[in-house]
Inverse folding.
C-alpha cells in the first residue's frame, strides 16, 4: 500500500476531490496547512522586501491506496491541481506498512 | 532556455581553473546574459537591476540571484510588466536557480528600503543588467542619497547588527568549522564596512587594499565550498577542508586554515578599528575625551584617548619604543592610534641583541595588563610589528590546531594564556617569569620537532636563546626553560597518576628542582588550561593539580606533606562494607557525584560497576578500589552525568544487583546503548581534524607498589567498561583509576597488581595486557 500526500492551492481542493472520486477513491484526509517552497512564498510580481520569507496557506490531501492505484491517483491530482503558476504545490508517495480499520479490526488491503 | 541555463551553469561550475573573483566575474557575466536575453527588447520604462551580492558581482555557486524589475508604471497599468516578469522568472525557476525577485516602481523600492536595513543595504549595490538605464541610475542615486541622509540611524542599526551577528556566529579565525559569511572576520563584515563607507568616508587609505585581499581569500574559499557541496552553505565543515585546500592549491588543510585565519583576522581587526571610529563619530565631539595631550613617557602621548607618538619619538633608533607604546596602550586600557601604528610599521627597528634596558620591563607590563593586552598585541601583529620584536613569533602566527580541545590558533592561545596568567601574578614570587614563560610556552609548536621529541623540547631550543636576548640572567633563563620544557607535566601527572603516591610528587620535584619553579608552573598550568578550551580545565582537575603541587613543594622543602584528603577506606566506608556483608549483597551509596559500592569481592567487579554506571549515563572521572582480607571489596567512583542530572542511586543499585546475579547482560546492554547513541549528533568537544588513536603503555616506574597501565582511546560510550573487562580477564586487580577526557580522546590510567598483589614485572605479561585491551577496544 502507498500513502499519496499532496500539497495544493486551496481553491483547487474541490477539483482534486472530484478527480479522485471519479477514480473510485473511497476516502481522503484534507487539512489546512501553510509553508513555503523555492520562491519563499513570493508571487511573480512580488513587491515586498526580498529578504522576507512568507508562509503561504495551502491544503494538504492524503490518500492511502493500493500499490496498483497510486500512479493513477498522482496523475489525477497533478492534472486537477495544475495552474502552471508558481506555488502549484507538490505530490509525494510513501510506502505504508500496514493499515487497520478501527471499528472492525480489519487489516491491510481489507481496511482500505 | 532552462536547459541552456542548466548546461551553461554546469559547464561554469566544472571549470576548476576559475577561482575566486575570476569565478564571480564569469558567473555574473553569464547570469547577466541569461537575464538580458529573457528581457529581450523589454518595454519602455522598465529596467532589470541586480541588487545585493549579485549587484556587487560577488556571485558564488550557491548564491541567490537577487534581481529587481524596476518600472515607472501606475498600478492600473501593470499588465505589460506582469507579463514581462513571467517571461523572465519562469525559465530561471525551471532551471532550478534560486531567485530573489521583486517587481517595483522606484518609489516602492525606496519606501521598502526606508524601513528595512537589509533592503536598504541591498539597494546600495545596484547594477543595471538590461533595459532603461535612466531608471536604474535614478534608483541608485536616490537609494544612496537616502542612505546618506539617514546615515546616523543606519550606521547605528548596522553596528548593532554586526555585534549581534558576531555573538551568534563566532570567530572565523578560531572556530574549527568557521562561518565564512556571518562569522566575525567573515564576508558580511567586509560588506558592512563598505556600506558604512557609502554613508560616511570612514575607511583609511591602507584599509582598502588589505580588505580587498582578505575578502578575496574568504570569497575563494566560499566558492569552492559551494562548488564541492552543491549547497549554499557558509560553514566550512571539517570534512570539506581537505578538498577545498586541494582545489585552492594549498599544501594541506592546515595551510588553508592558517591562510583563512590570517584573512579573517585582518577583516576583524579592520572592522573593530573602523566601527570604533564610527561609534566615536556618532557620539560626536562632546563624547570624546579631553583634547589636550597627556605625556606617557618619552616619545609617547595620550591624544583623544589613543596612544600617539610624540614629535620627538625616534622609532628608527629606539629599540624599545614598540613595546613601550604597546605597554602604555594596554595599561591605559586603550589602543595605539592608527597613525602611531603606521609610523611604527614604517620606521621602527627591532629591539636588537641584547634588548635595551627598558624593553623587557615594557613587555612585562604589556602582558601584565591582562585582557587589555590582547587587542594591542593583535594590532601589532596586523602591522607586522610583533614579529619585528620577536622574529620567532612569525612561526606560530595564525597556526591552526584544528581540534575541539584547543579553542584558538597557537599565537592567540599564547596571548590568551598570558592574559589569564596576569590574573594569577599574586600567587607567585616572580610575576615577570610567569608572564613571559606563559606567553612563550607553546612557541615550539611553530617549529618542526626533531625526531622523537615534542613541542616542549623544541620550545626549549627556541626559548632559551630568546630569553637570553631579552636580558634575563642565567638563573632566570634556567627557570623559564624549565617552565617551557615541563609545561604539561603537572596537568599530565595530576590527571593520570595517583597524586597521593610519593613517587608522583618525587617526579615533579626532580623535574623542576625548586619550590619557586613549582609555584610558577602551577600558575602557568592553570592559565594555559583555561586558555585551551572548555574541556581542558575543571574544578576537579584544579584540585588534583593543587594537591600534587602541595606534595611536590613538601618534598622539595622537606616540610610535612599535607594530610591526604581522607584515609581510604574511611570509617564510613568500612561501615558500608559491614552492612554489605550482613545483607549478603551489594550496597550502593551515592553522595553528590561520589558513589561508593561495597560488595563481596569477585573477578571483574570493577568492570561490572563501570558498565552499570555507563548504562545510567555517567562518565567516570576517577575511581579507587580496596579489598579486604576476608573477601570484601569497596569501590569509590567520582562521576559526572553525560547529559542532565545524576540518576536515582537506588536504580543503579538494582541494576548492579541484576548484573551481579547474572540477570542482566551488561555486554548486550552496553552494546545496545552504544548503538542507540551512535547516530546522535556528535557531542560538542568531540570533533577533531585528526582522529584519536588507541594506544596502551605499561609503566612500572610511576608507582612504588603498582604497575600503571595507561590507555589512550577515542572517547566513546563504554570505553572504560571495555578496558576494565580486558584487565579483569587477565585477573588484574585495579586499585586506582583515573580518566582524563581531552576533547575527542580519553586517557585512562589504572594502577594494577597481579593476582598475588605484585607488579607486572615480566615483558610477556605486559604485552599480553596491551593485546587484550586493544582487542577489547576494537569491539566498540
Amino acid at each position: 500500500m502507498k500513502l499519496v500526500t499532496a500539497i495544493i492551492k486551496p481553491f483547487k481542493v474541490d477539483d482534486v476531490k472530484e478527480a479522485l472520486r471519479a477514480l473510485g477513491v473511497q476516502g481522503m484526509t484534507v487539512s489546512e496547512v501553510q509553508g513555503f517552497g523555492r520562491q519563499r512564498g513570493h508571487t511573480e510580481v512580488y513587491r515586498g522586501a526580498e529578504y522576507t520569507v512568507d508562509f503561504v496557506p495551502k491544503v494538504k490531501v492524503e490518500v492511502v491506496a493500493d500499490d496498483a492505484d497510486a500512479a493513477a491517483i498522482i496523475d489525477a491530482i497533478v492534472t486537477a491541481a495544475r495552474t502552471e503558476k508558481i506555488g502549484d504545490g507538490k505530490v509525494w508517495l510513501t510506502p505504508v506498512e500496514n493499515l487497520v480499520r478501527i471499528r472492525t479490526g480489519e487489516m491491510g488491503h481489507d481496511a482500505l | 532556455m532552462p536547459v541552456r541555463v542548466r548546461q551553461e551553469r554546469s559547464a561554469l561550475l566544472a571549470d576548476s581553473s576559475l577561482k575566486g573573483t575570476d569565478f564571480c566575474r564569469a558567473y555574473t557575466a553569464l547570469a547577466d546574459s541569461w537575464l538580458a536575453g529573457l528581457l529581450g527588447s523589454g518595454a519602455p520604462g522598465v529596467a532589470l537591476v541586480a541588487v545585493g551580492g549579485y549587484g556587487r558581482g560577488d556571485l558564488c555557486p550557491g548564491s541567490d540571484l537577487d534581481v529587481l524589475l524596476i518600472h515607472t508604471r501606475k498600478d492600473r497599468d501593470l499588465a505589460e510588466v506582469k507579463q514581462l516578469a513571467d517571461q523572465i522568472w519562469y525559465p530561471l525557476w525551471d532551471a532550478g536557480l534560486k531567485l530573489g525577485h521583486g517587481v517595483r516602481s522606484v518609489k516602492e523600492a525606496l519606501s521598502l528600503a526606508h524601513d528595512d536595513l537589509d533592503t536598504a543595504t541591498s539597494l546600495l549595490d545596484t547594477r543595471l543588467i538590461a533595459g532603461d538605464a535612466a531608471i536604474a541610475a535614478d534608483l541608485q542615486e536616490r537609494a544612496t542619497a537616502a542612505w546618506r541622509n539617514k546615515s546616523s540611524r543606519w550606521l547605528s542599526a548596522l553596528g548593532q547588527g554586526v555585534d549581534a551577528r558576531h555573538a551568534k556566529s563566532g570567530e572565523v579565525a578560531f572556530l574549527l568549522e568557521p562561518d565564512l559569511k556571518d562569522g566575525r572576520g567573515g564576508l558580511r563584515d567586509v560588506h558592512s564596512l563598505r556600506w558604512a563607507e557609502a554613508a560616511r568616508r570612514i575607511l583609511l587609505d591602507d584599509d582598502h587594499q588589505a580588505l580587498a585581499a582578505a575578502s578575496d581569500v574568504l570569497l575563494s574559499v566560499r566558492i569552492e565550498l559551494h562548488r564541492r557541496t552543491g549547497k549554499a552553505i557558509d560553514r566550512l565543515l571539517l570534512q570539506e577542508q581537505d578538498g577545498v585546500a586541494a582545489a585552492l592549491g594549498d599544501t594541506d588543510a592546515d595551510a588553508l586554515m592558517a591562510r583563512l585565519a590570517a584573512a579573517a583576522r585582518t577583516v576583524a581587526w579592520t572592522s573593530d578599528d573602523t566601527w570604533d571610529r564610527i561609534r566615536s563619530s556618532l557620539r560626536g565631539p562632546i563624547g570624546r575625551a579631553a583634547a589636550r595631550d597627556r605625556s606617557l613617557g618619552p616619545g609617547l602621548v595620550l591624544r583623544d584617548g589613543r596612544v600617539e607618538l610624540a614629535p620627538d619619538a625616534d622609532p628608527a633608533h629606539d629599540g624599545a619604543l614598540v613595546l613601550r607604546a604597546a605597554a602604555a596602550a594596554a595599561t591605559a586600557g586603550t589602543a595605539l592610534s592608527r597613525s602611531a601604528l603606521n609610523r611604527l610599521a614604517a620606521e621602527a627597528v627591532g629591539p636588537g641583541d641584547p634588548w635595551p634596558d627598558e624593553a623587557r620591563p615594557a613587555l612585562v607590563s604589556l602582558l601584565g595588563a591582562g585582557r587589555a593586552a590582547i587587542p594591542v598585541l593583535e594590532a601589532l601583529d596586523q602591522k607586522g610589528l610583533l614579529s619585528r620584536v620577536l622574529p620567532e613569533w612569525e612561526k606560530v602566527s595564525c597556526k591552526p590546531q584544528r581540534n575541539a580541545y584547543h579553542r584558538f590558533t597557537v599565537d592567540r592561545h599564547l596571548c590568551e594564556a598570558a592574559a589569564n596568567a596576569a590574573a594569577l601574578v599574586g600567587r607567585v614570587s616572580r610575576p615577570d617569569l610567569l608572564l613571559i614563560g606563559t606567553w612563550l610556552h607553546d612557541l615550539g609548536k611553530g617549529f618542526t620537532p626533531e625526531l622523537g621529541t615534542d613541542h616542549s623540547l623544541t620550545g626549549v631550543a627556541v626559548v632559551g636563546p630568546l630569553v637570553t636576548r631579552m636580558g634575563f640572567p642565567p638563573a632566570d633563563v634556567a627557570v623559564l626553560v624549565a617552565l617551557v620544557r615541563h609545561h604539561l607535566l603537572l596537568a599530565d601527572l595530576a590527571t593520570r597518576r595517583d597524586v597521593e603516591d610519593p613517587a608522583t610528587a618525587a617526579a615533579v620535584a626532580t623535574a623542576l628542582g625548586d619550590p619557586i619553579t613549582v609555584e610558577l608552573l602551577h600558575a602557568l598550568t592553570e592559565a594555559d588550561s583555561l586558555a585551551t578550551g572548555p574541556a581542558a580545565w575543571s574544578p576537579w582537575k584544579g584540585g588534583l593539580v593543587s594537591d600534587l603541587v602541595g606534595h611536590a613543594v613538601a618534598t622539595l622543602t622537606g616540610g610535612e606533606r599535607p594530610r591526604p584528603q581522607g584515609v581510604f577506606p574511611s570509617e564510613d566506608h568500612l561501615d558500608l562494607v559491614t552492612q554489605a556483608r550482613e545483607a549478603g549483597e551489594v550496597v550502593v551509596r551515592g553522595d553528590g557525584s561520589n558513589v561508593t559500592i561495597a560488595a563481596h569481592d569477585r573477578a571483574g567487579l570493577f568492570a561490572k560497576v563501570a558498565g552499570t554506571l555507563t548504562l545510567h549515563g555517567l562518565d567516570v572521572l576517577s575511581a579507587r578500589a580496596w579489598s579486604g582480607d576476608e573477601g570484601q571489596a569497596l569501590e569509590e567512583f567520582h562521576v559526572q552525568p553525560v547529559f542532565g542530572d545524576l540518576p536515582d542511586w537506588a536504580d543503579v543499585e538494582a541494576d548492579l544487583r541484576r548484573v551481579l546475579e547474572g540477570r542482566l547482560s551488561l555486554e548486550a546492554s552496553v552494546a545496545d546503548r552504544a548503538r542507540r547513541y551512535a547516530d546522535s549528533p556528535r557531542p560538542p568537544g568531540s570533533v577533531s581534524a585528526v582522529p584519536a588513536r588507541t594506544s596502551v603503555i605499561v609503566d612500572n616506574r610511576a608507582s612504588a607498589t603498582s604497575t600503571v597501565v595507561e590507555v589512550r582511546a577515542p572517547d566513546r560510550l563504554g570505553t572504560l567498561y571495555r578496558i576494565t573487562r580486558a584487565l579483569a580477564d587477565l585477573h588484574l586487580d585495579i586499585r586506582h583509576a583515573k580518566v582524563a577526557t581531552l576533547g575527542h580522546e580519553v586517557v585512562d590510567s589504572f594502577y594494577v597488581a597481579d593476582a598475588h598483589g605484585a607488579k607486572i614485572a615480566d615483558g610477556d605479561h605486559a604485552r599480553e595486557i596491551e593485546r587484550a585491551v586493544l582487542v577489547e577496544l576494537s569491539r566498540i
